[in-house]
Amino acid sequence: MKVLVPLLLLAAFAPTLIPSREQHRDNESQKGSAAPCPDTVAWTGKYVNYSYGFSVVIPKGLKGFWNSAVCVSGPDGCTCMSDHGRIIPLTAEPYEPERHIEVYAGYAADLDEPTVEQEVDKRLGWIRESSREGSVRVLRQSSTTLAGLKSQRVVVRYYDKKLNQLMVEDFVEALRRGDVEYSLYLRTSENAYDHDRKVFDNVIGTFTLRKLE
Hints:
Elements: E1 18-19, E2 42-43, E3 45-49, E4 54-58, E5 64-66, E6 72-74, E7 77-80, E8 85-89, E9 100-107, H1 116-129, E10 137-146, E11 149-160, E12 165-176, E13 180-189, H2 193-206, E14 208-209
């Protein structure tokens, strides 16, 4: 099975080691005493993230995959870096990297006092780096809320240099406690956007906050 790794996750991961059982407590499809490493299995239904305090429901018929650093399996079990979220392919196997939803959380450690606006600008910068010069167009940008947090939602169309096609990214950025970043985003082709946006809206609607551990 091919697991997708988005560009966003090339950033540094939080150095906290966590046992894999923490990642399986609320995943009904992974019941059992000897749970496999979470980077080797697909999630369905409700996904709970204990590292960054949130939950989200993976839409029926779709699967969510580990989107963090690769886990290490040893004689004492499975050890992983902090769990940053899940990536949800929107196509059947073999998954197409240009169509997916991602739910990502992490610490905004590269800024002393980060703001939602700065996180939006950072993501727009990544999009410009992968696009044809002059092709980036912000279609919509508005203030909104994500599980009660002040956030921004942005829809961007651009011509992807690698894929040689028009793409759309629809993303929501939010901050909690000043340093915990939540980023939910859809990446898809321009032709598939109207269909995939409905799935993305459904995922956003299930996002809830939990107590930070």
